[in-house]
Specification:
- This protein has one domain: Purple Acid Phosphatase, chain A, domain 2, CATH 3.60.21.
- The mean pLDDT is 92.
- The protein contains nine helices and 13 strands.
- The strands form three sheets. The chain has a six-stranded mixed beta sheet.
- The structure holds manganese (II) ion (MN).
- The site of manganese (II) ion (MN) has 7 residues, from helix 3.
Amino acid sequence: MTDVLVRDLFDGPLDIVGDVHGELDALRNLLHQLGYSTDGLHPEKRRLVFVGDLTDRGPDSPGVVALVQRLVESGAAQCVLGNHDLNILLGDRKHDNHWYFGEEFALDGSDEPTPAIIADETIRARVIQFFQTLPLALERDDLRVIHACWDDDMIEVARRSSDAVALHQEHAERITSAHSQQPDLDKVEKGLEFQNRNPVKVLTSGREQRAAKPFEASGKLRRQERVSWWHEYNAEPYCVFGHYSMHRGKDRGSSRALCADYAVARRWQERKQHSFNGDFQGMLAAIRFPEKVVVFDNGDVELASIKG
Ligand SMILES: [Mn+2]
């Protein structure tokens, strides 16, 4: 594998699919709503691009990876690596990726089962083999695709590497060794350096900053918060990204940076709610380019949010 981590994006009209997070039914519905055949072919020669985070939380991560892998390998789709996909490549056990490690339950110590298809040896090998082929970024003159954050300096670093895991480890080790010379750095400062000075982290999960006050997210007390980089994005090409799950109707993006993640990852929790009536709030969506409209998995269509 000698391809570098920043590659050419398909030309022509595209449908850029947000974070799927194991929601195979939603993905099948969305591809149907967009007009694709099961082979990923479109009568108007449109093509698919995935912003990454194919797995975790939803019920069928192996099914989503298998479908996207088939589309990518047949030339019908492209896909970039997300932070959840990276965690699996790094062998990092997280709360949401228990399925990959053969665990029936989420690893947060709760007794609540998270119904999910569990990976066996064959599935694990196939998932890793596919994720190893994924770039961190795709680009063409008028458009860029990234999982979390387009950062020019980090993109330049990624252009010189063909292995996301090796690049991640190289920078993690460099930062660790720099910290041994800086005994005064506090824990938050060290955490921020691991996040903000590692190109693979910045591109797949974005920059962070010290929070004014500690806050709770996903059951953990956090002292670092995400930076809303899209407010400052003013490059000429549009940028479509995922990762920052948004609520429908609530804008996330600048005039040229458009978020495709409409929080389908919330569905596994929505299903557990007593009051759940089958109407999901979290949606899977695709941004059509150059049209800049959003198509949802239930067939709804709206203009892509372009307000800051
Ligand atoms: Mn993500």
